[in-house]
Amino acid sequence: MISKKMIPLFVLLVVVFGYSCNLAFAQEAPAEVDTRLFHTGKIWIFVSVILFSYAIIHSIYHARSGGNIFIRRIAGLEAVDEAIGRSTEMGRPILYILGLGTVGDVATIASMNILSQVARKTADYETPLRVPCNDPIVLNVVREMVKAAYLDEGRPDAYSEDDIFFVTESQFAYAAAVDGMMVREKPAAVFLQGTFYAESLILAETGNSVGAIQIAGSDSDSQLPFFITACDYTLIGEELYAASAYLSREPMLLGSLKGQDYGKFILFAGIVLGVTLELVGITWVTTFFQEVK
Amino acid sequence: MEVLGIWVAAFFTLCIYSFLYRDNPFYRFAEHLFVGLSVGYGIVFSIHQGLIPFAWDPFWEAITKREFMGLLKLIPIFIGLLFFARVVPKYSWLIRYPIAILIGIGAGRAIPNVMDARIFRQVYGTLTPFGQIHAGALGFFEIFGAILMLVGVICTLTYFFFSIEHRGAVGGISKVGIIFLMVGFGSAFGNTVMGRVSLLIQRVDFLLSDWLRLI
Hints:
The complex is a heterodimer. Chain A is of the alpha/beta class. Chain A has eleven helices and six strands. Helix content of chain A is 60%, strand content 11%.
């Protein structure tokens, strides 16, 4: 006999299982046979990933061996403590929205890392943390991460699985439900971190109207303007990826951030070199970037 | 039936728009119905587009047609089933395996695409006009545009260096980068707002024309 409490769980599991089956076999559809084990057309991407990985691993080892790594101030992240403190003082929940991304989206992964750091603080302050999810797989990952954060802080008793819940996969139904939550629960702080589409302004405006301090972050170029206009702080593009390192100050993440900067420096040098050579009629740098796929 | 559909659509349009005034029972009704319908649709969709064609049918075919190689598909099915481990607290840790696999696959698929589309394509696009400048194929404004784009790229890239302090020359360059970013965002904002206004016009047109038949 299935109890009433089991019905939402059953619904969730059907969606998760169906979705995971879809993910697991979705690559079956194109029946094109290719016997190559190695895609030679992507060799330069492979080389770039190796070089990039080397820079990151080297920086991680440097950080772990006690090397000092400077990270510049990121205003939006300085405000995280302020937002959590405000929620705690007002006795209102924090609403953390991960957007519409899946676990395959880099922004969603970055957002989950930030959530983990936020959860550590809410565990300490016993501030309710509400996380409405759009994707059932993301829901499960988030539950694991938040649970681990509460365990790490020695507060497993403060963790409430019911506060991290599945709403719907439909974009605007999700936006309508989260808007409704905002006006009814009146969260003191709203985090909008991850992949967003047309619902971004609907969410950010509603959060603004209930007087919540809002910290947004996304790599969705087309949605960032809305966050900048409607939120108190906005993490722009890569600042979202840097956030977890900034908040945690863990050597591994700091090293990773430093490694990414090395990668950017190489690109920077590549652009300057490429422009200089193009102006004197030498095109090999441009040709290289053209042929890299 | 068509008239009924128009009335239902108009009613729910007004229910949702009533949120602009404040939260109210009509909005709540529309919100809950919308969420419920979308979840119901999502479940049926997952069953018909995921569970049956990708899990049940191949498995059943392998059994009935005795194609035992088809049973290899039991491996990903088993991995998917590990999501159910959450139901049993003692084995809930098993859920970490499908999660790890999905994140690994997701990151593995995303990284090469991101590097291609967001890094190499963009650098190529930045460099190309300078070859045309050398060939004398660009006019004054096009050359100005190419230089402006290069300055924008370099300044914006500088803003995203996290491990150097943004003071002095670096601070100045990154501030110029922020200006470029804001100009870009302003342009995107205006463009999208125009798109949203056209959606509003479409909806008002539906209410006035299809529903009230005033125009």
